[in-house]
DNA sequence: AATGCAGTACCCCAAATGGGGGATTTCACA
DNA sequence: TGTGAAATCCCCCATTTGGGGTACTGCATT
């Protein structure tokens, strides 16, 4: 036997909302009993309902879909949220994912794929269009300009990030504290900084370590 | 008319490699002329060939697929790499993406989906199984424990990260340097650190700022 | 009324830091 | 063959930092 997936919809456009509900209710294995026109009303009722998957519009009047998830997801940790959007080309993708969304689809996704996506989030996947996926993975591929630091300098910078002082670093690397200081002076020159704090900040932000 | 997508394969298992090539060459619109059994041989020839998409095994003898991409991708920025793997449950996903891969598929992906994925990377998408996508987006949803710092302390921590000293911070916030020092002492207590470098490191890594 | 936290301000002092030098060896690359 | 970068070590000295205090105000919660 096949389980029924309970779906809720938060979407302000009447036509889209009703069309989505029709698609879902017209397909065996899917059921949509609750729909909401904004986050305000969804926030009141949704946490008390048994729902597996929520389709959430991003551009909503009042509370945005992103802020809506931020409030709802903590109350419904076992419910998966799929964001629906018309525009793929902005960073609301990242805001949505950080807010707790599990999937991210275009509103013009064909019904068959929408239903497949609902099943997939329900089964623990994260459906998203491959274009959106590309944007997501590009965020991992931030081009790291080659570090200007030598091996020893990088090594020392790592220890600086742990909050170690000249002496501790010297002991750990079997060097004299003088040497460590020399290296750190060179690190400062190369990174164009003049304090530990700034060096550490730059090191972590620029992924030098 | 339909363009032909030129595919190369790097895979040590003879059977898999030949099967993949057969699938690709047996389908109109796809062509696979070059296959390699390891990264060592691929590194020599691939950069000089015209190839749109490379299917790269992750677990290769000698140079791994991940290290292979690190070397190849910079030389072939317009070529897309799809990683092939048998195990999805580790962080080679992230290493691959960071190294420059555009897609990430299981080796047991059915032929039709493999071909669709090749087309999708070629068109600028990033195909990956929804399970893998879930792992990727979970990396965005790191739960940030509420900061123990007060508003003023957070403000001062931000300035510390810029490398400012007591006096500069004091001037910027219209405080006495004594006050700034008091705040910083409290920051250290709350973060369980005892130096600027450590505080800055913790602040950035824990996203306190 | 009391307690505690945030924010402000001050004192003392030892230790660490940053900036300015200079010096040597080794090793690669031109 | 020499030039430079990397790595090691040393000196001096003014400034900054960190740790130990104390003290006052306001505000909220108890």
Task: Note down, in words, how this protein is organized.
The structure is a homodimer of 209-residue chains. Chain A is of the alpha/beta class and 209 residues long. Chain A folds into 2 domains: 134 residues, Response regulator (Rossmann fold, 3-Layer(aba) Sandwich); 55 residues, Winged helix-like DNA-binding domain superfamily/Winged helix DNA-binding domain (Arc Repressor Mutant, subunit A), CATH 1.10.10. Chain A is 48% helix and 13% strand. Chain A is built from 10 helices and 5 strands. Chain A has a 5-stranded parallel β-sheet with strand order 2-1-3-4-5, with helices on both faces. In chain A, helix 1 links the parallel strand 1 and strand 2. In chain A, helix 7 packs across helix 9 and helix 7 crosses helix 10. The mean pLDDT of chain A is 92. Chains A and B meet through helix 4, helix 6 and helix 10 of A and helix 4, helix 6 and helix 10 of B. Chain B binds a DNA duplex (30 and 30 nucleotides) through helix 7 and helix 9.
């Amino acid at each position: 036997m096949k389980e029924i997936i309970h779906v809720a919809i938060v979407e302000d456009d009447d036509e889209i909302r009703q069309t989505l509900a029709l698609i879902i209710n017209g397909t065996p294995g899917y059921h949509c009993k609750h729909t909401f026109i904004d986050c305000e009303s969804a926030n009141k009722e949704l946490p008390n309902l048994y729902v597996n998957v929520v389709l959430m519009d991003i551009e909503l009047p009042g509370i945005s879909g992103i802020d809506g998830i931020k409030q709802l997801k903590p109350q419904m940790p076992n419910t998966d949220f799929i964001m629906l959007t018309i525009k793929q080309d902005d960073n609301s993708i990242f805001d949505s994912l950080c807010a707790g969304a599990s999937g991210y689809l275009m509103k013009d996704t064909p019904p068959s794929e929408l239903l497949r996506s609902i099943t997939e989030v329900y089964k623990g996947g994260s459906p998203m269009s491959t274009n959106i996926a590309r944007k997501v993975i590009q965020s991992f591929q931030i081009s790291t300009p080659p570090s200007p630091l030598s091996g020893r300098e990088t090594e020392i910078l790592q220890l600086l990030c742990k909050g170690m002082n000249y002496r501790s670093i010297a002991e750990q690397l079997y060097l004299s504290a003088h040497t460590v200081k020399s290296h750190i002076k060179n690190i400062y020159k190369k990174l164009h900084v003049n304090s530990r704090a700034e060096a550490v900040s730059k090191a972590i932000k620029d992924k030098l370590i």
